[in-house]
Structure to design on (137 residues):
């Protein structure tokens, strides 16, 4: 557990406002940079990375590293998040790179099956199904 102090900086506050209001559950640091640049208040990329990592340490944001070819995705899980502490799997389109949240009771049953029958505990936050999204079919 990280014992870094929780700082209240202006950059952190506006980053949290952006994350809370974002219609997309997954964002990259690049998405954040582009958003603030388009609004005329650019924040340095290193500052954004540093703030996102602090939010991960504080449990306000989840970080997903899907593969070595894609940037890390961040998901706001703090108060008022899109979904609260549900089991979530991910699907990644191999054509366009879109990352899709997948909440599925059948996959949760599969996770139980893996544990009971095969003695293997799957980590849903790190489980990614690769294929082609509906838009790319």
């Amino acid at each position: 557990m990280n014992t870094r102090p929780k700082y209240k900086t202006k950059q952190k506050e506006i980053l949290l406002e952006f994350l809370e209001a974002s219609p997309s559950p997954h964002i990259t640091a690049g998405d954040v940079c582009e958003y603030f640049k388009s609004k005329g208040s650019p924040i340095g990329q290193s500052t954004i990375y540093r703030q996102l990592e602090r939010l991960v340490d504080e449990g306000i944001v989840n970080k997903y590293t899907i593969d070595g070819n894609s940037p890390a995705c961040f998901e706001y899980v703090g108060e008022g998040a899109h979904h609260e502490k549900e089991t979530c799997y991910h699907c990644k389109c191999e054509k366009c790179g879109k990352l899709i949240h997948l909440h599925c009771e059948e996959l949760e049953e599969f996770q139980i099956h893996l544990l009971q029958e095969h003695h293997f505990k799957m980590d849903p936050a790190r489980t990614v199904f690769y294929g082609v999204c509906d838009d790319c079919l």
